[in-house]
Design a protein that fits this description.
Elements lengths: L2 H18 L12 E2 L5 E2 L5 E6 L4 H11 L4 H6 L3 E2 L12 E6 L2 H4 L4 E8 H5 L12 E9 L6 E10 L7 E12 L4 E5 L7 E4 L2 E6 L3 E6 L4 E2 L9 E3 L5 E3 L4 E13 L9 E5 L4 E5 L16 E6 L10 E3 L2 E4 L5 E7 L2 E6 L4 E6 L3 E6 L4 E7 L7 E6 L6 E6 L6
Parallel strand pairs: 9-17
Antiparallel strand pairs: 1-26, 2-22, 3-17, 3-21, 4-9, 5-29, 6-7, 7-8, 8-9, 9-10, 11-12, 12-13, 13-17, 14-17, 15-16, 18-19, 19-20, 20-22, 23-24, 24-25, 25-26, 27-28, 28-29
Amino acid sequence: MSVRRSALLASALLVSALAAAGTLAAGVLTAPAFAAAGPTTLPTGQFTLSANYTQFDAINSALVSKVGTAPVHTVMDNANLDRTALPSSFSVAGLSGGFRFDSGDNSDCKSYPQGITTSRDAVGTANSGNYDGHQLVVTSWYTDTACGGAQQRSRIILADWDATYPDKYRKILLVQPTGTAAAPDFKDIPIHAGGVSWYGDYLYVADTGHGMRVFDMRKILKTNTGGTADQIGHQTGSTYYAHNYAYALPQVGTITASTTSNAALAWSSISLDRVSKSIVMAEYTCPSGCEDYPNRPPRAIRFPFGPGATTFAASTTASEALQLPWYKLNGVASHNGRWWFNSSGDKKLYYWTPATGAATHAWVGGGESLSYWEDTANADLLWSLQETVGSRNVFAVKQATYGA
């Protein structure tokens, strides 16, 4: 028997022993089970991005002149929904804290939270991770036409995560500019919004079959809350509706992905790596039998930002590309050479580095995206969330709990 197989067997026996001894609490392993295989590398030259940050400049300038903008601190001063504490029944190894949305958003079968990022992604650890005076947790959502219907729009939620502010959050509609500079308008963005990353002033939202849509957090539009819930865009004069939302965030650009491989990338989730100044993406795929998702091994790709910039160059080639052995991946995170992958279908959180290999940890059901929260004074965290109706928990765990 090889040394590697011996180590794997020993690890499996250890996990069995821990289970027998009652150390598997709330379905969460207190020690990792080591996977038999980890990712393998792919040629990075196969994957490229094309970036356009000025695509809607003329129309957006006209929209701003029509309705005006609200900075983030004003949006949060007018936050109108109350987040609540995590339920006492919620348990996951290394839990550090978190919250749950109010009863309406927690039980809404038309809208689903997907991506997560924070102001620590945007600005790092400086000034306690505050952006415009607020330490924020941002989640991306999609909304269906009905419970179980087709996707019709997407939004973000900004939630305060700072003891000096009330436990409030605010919804902002994501919109795509339309019309002309003389007659500016906007419409809904009907995407899955499976991942979101915030870097500097720019918010990147995953667009499954294409790449990412780019938004500028300095350009939040003030919209009219009147009208009916189905009204969107220009009405008369300077009146613009956004389904009764007080704020709308217009798209400023597009990041388009291309590949020379035999399968286009499926942008299921994204996350920021501040250490390497890059965004990483991962695909949700199935081994077989899926109708709405690819039936093939998934990939994870790293795309670096331009030197000294919080934007991508006009053309960017991947700096790392991995073929993954795990399926049904809803979340990805990377930091300082380490990778984490969340599989909601398997309720597993996979950890991998080239040096240590792969390890598997038990994880929550309904888990979605991941975001790394760097902290110079306290333990670094991994933030995540659950999309399950009735159990929409947004939570942080100590990242050291989920290593080799």
